[in-house]
C-alpha cells in the first residue's frame, strides 16, 4: 500500500517538474530605455522599493510580455517589493493606519485629490522624471491634481455600456437603456456607490461630482426605480455574466470591455451620449516613503515608451503616454473603445474628491437603495445586544436550575 | 441493523454534491483554454505553466506557507504548554482562563486584526522604528492560532488517566522522562489535530493578515483578493487545484496510515 502511494507521489512530482521545466522561459526582461546612464545611480546599493499597485495591473511576463519589475531590477539593481490592493479605499486605509510604508502607490483620480487635500503625498521632482515629456499634454494638469505636482498618469479609461448584440438589437446610445423594462432581469449594475451614482446623475443631466443633496436624492430615487430591473449589483463578475450570456447589459470600464469582446465577439461597447466618467490611475509617492529618489526612478521607468506600451497591452486600458501610443499595434491604437473620439471625451467627467458630508450622504443613500428603503432603527443594535445578554444569562440560570434538580435525586 | 433507505443515501449524495461541485467546477476550469468561466474552448495546461512563472503568486504562496508553518509550530508548543497549565488549575481560575482563550475565537476577525495592528503601531512608538512585516504577521498568526491548539489538547488531557503518569514516576521515571514518555504520547492526537487546525486557519486567514502584513510581506489570500478589480486569473484555479490535490493526498496518507495502525492493534488484541 505504502509503496503504491510513494510511487503515485513520485509520479505527480515528476509530472509537475516536467511541466515546469518543459515550458520555455517566457518573460522578457530586455527593454530599450531612453537614457541608460540615468538608471545606474543606485547600482549595488541594495535598495528595496515598496510598490503598491492594483492586482493584475502591471505587465508580469506572462505570454512573452515584458516583466516590468524584473526588467527594472536588472537595469537599476534596485529590488522591487511588489504588493497589490483591490480598492482605493483599502489603499487609503492601509496608508492611514501607519502600519505600512510604501514608495510607490497608484491610486485613482478622486483618491489622488483626497490624498493631496490630506497632505499624504510627496511632491514630485519632475527634473528627475525626464520621461514625463512623453505624457500627452491633454493629461497634464488634470482636475484631480490641477497643478500637476503630485502625480503622473498611468492609465485612463471611460465607463460605458457593454451589451450583448444577440439580446439587444436596438442601438445603445443612452443610459436610459439601463432603465428599460424590456430588459428587466438582464441588467447588471455597479456595486460601488460612486460609479452607480455617477451613472444616475449623468442620466439626470447633473454633474457626477455634485454636492447638492437634492440632486443626490433624485439620483438615489432613480436607482431605486431601477432596482427591480437589475439582475445583480456586481463588479468583476460582469466578465463571466456577460460572456456567459447571462445578462444583456452592464456598465463597465472600456479596457475590460475590450478584453471581453476579444473572447466573445457577440458583445459590444458604447458610450452614452449624455456623457460619462473618465477615470485615471496615477503614480504617486506617499509621504513617508523611504526611497524617494529611487521611487522617481521607478516612475520614470514606467513612463519609458516601451514599458508603458507593454503595460497597456497587458492591462488593456488606455495610455496617456504619447510615445507608448505610437508603439501600440494598429488595432489597439485605432480602437474607438480605447481611444474614443474627442466629442465623447469632451463630455466625459472625472471624479474629484467629495466633501466628507457628501461622502457620508452618498453612502447612506446607497445603503438605502440596496436595502430597499428599509430604514434602520437606531435602537436595533442596543436591543440586539441586550437580547443577547439576556439570552446568555437565561441559559446559565436554566442550566443551574437543572443541575440543582438533578442533584436532588 | 436496519437497511438503509434509498432516500437517506440520496441525501448524503446531495450533500456531497453541494460540498464538492464548486471544487470540481474550479478544477475543470483550470484546464480551460479560455480565460472566462462562461465558455469552454478546449483543454490546456497553460495556466499551470503560467502559474509557475507568475512570481507574485508564487512568492505569496511561499510567504503564506512560511508564516503558516512557523505560526502553527510555535502555536502548538505554546498551546500545549498552556493546556497543561490550564488542566492543572483550580476550577475558578480555569474557567477564567478558558473564557480568555475563547475570546480570540469568538471575537470577529476584523476586531482582532485592527486591534493587533494598533498594538504594533503603538509599540513602534515605544520600541523605535520597525516595519510591519513578517514578524508582526507571525505574531498575529500565533495569537489567533494558539486557542485552537489549547481547545484540541485540553480534552485529551482530561481523558488521560492521571495515574499512568504517577505510575511512571513510581517505576523510576524522572518527571521530565515521564512527561515525554507518558503524557505526550497520550495527548499526541490532540496536539496533531491542534497543529493541523492552526495550519489551516493560518493559511486561510485574510482579514488579520491584511491589517498586519505591512508593505513588504503579502500572503496568498491578499494577492487573490486584490485581483477582483480585474478578472480573477485562471492561474488561481490552477493553484487551487494543486492545493486541493496535495491536501487530498495528505489526507489519504494519514487515513491509510491510521487504519493500518488500527488493524494492527485489533490483530494484536485478538492474538494476545
Helix-strand blueprint:
The complex is a heterodimer of chains A (409) and B (272).
Chain A: H1 2-22, E1 48-54, H2 68-76, E2 79-85, H3 88-97, E3 104-105, H4 109-117, E4 152-164, E5 187-190, H5 193-204, H6 213-226, E6 230-234, H7 237-243, E7 249-253, H8 254-263, E8 267-270, E9 278-283, H9 292-302, H10 305-315, H11 322-327, H12 330-333, H13 342-347, H14 356-370, H15 380-408
Parallel strand pairs in A: 1-2, 1-3, 5-6
Antiparallel strand pairs in A: 4-7, 4-8, 4-9
Helix pairs in contact in A: 5-6, 6-14
Chain B: H1 6-29, H2 46-53, H3 55-87, H4 91-106, H5 109-127, H6 134-159, H7 162-170, H8 175-204, H9 207-212, H10 220-225, H11 234-271
Model description:
- The complex is a heterodimer of chains A (409) and B (272).
- With 409 residues, chain A is of the alpha/beta class.
- Chain A has three domains: 26-150 and 281-327, Periplasmic binding protein-like II (D-Maltodextrin-Binding Protein, domain 2), CATH 3.40.190; 157-277 and 359-370, 3-Layer(aba) Sandwich (D-Maltodextrin-Binding Protein, domain 2); 382-409.
- Chain A has 15 helices and nine strands.
- Chain A has helices at 2-22, 68-76, 88-97, 109-117, 193-204, 213-226, 237-243, 254-263, 292-302, 305-315, 322-327, 330-333, 342-347, 356-370, 380-408; strands at residues 48-54, 79-85, 104-105, 152-164, 187-190, 230-234, 249-253, 267-270, 278-283.
- In chain A, the strands form three sheets. In chain A, strands 4, 7, 8 and 9 form a four-stranded antiparallel sheet that branches. In chain A, strands 2-1-3 form a three-stranded parallel sheet. In chain A, strands 5-6 form a two-stranded parallel sheet.
- In chain A, α5 (193-204) crosses α6 (213-226) and α6 runs parallel beside α14.
- The N and C termini of chain A lie far apart (56 Å).
- The mean pLDDT of chain A is 88.
- With 272 residues, chain B is mainly α.
- Chain B has a domain at 55-235: Orthogonal Bundle (MetI-like fold).
- Chain B has eleven helices and no strands.
- The longest helix of chain B is centred in the C-terminal third of the chain and has 38 residues, at 234-271.
- The two termini of chain B are 30 Å apart.
- The mean pLDDT of chain B is 89.
- The interface between A and B is large, with 56 and 47 residues.
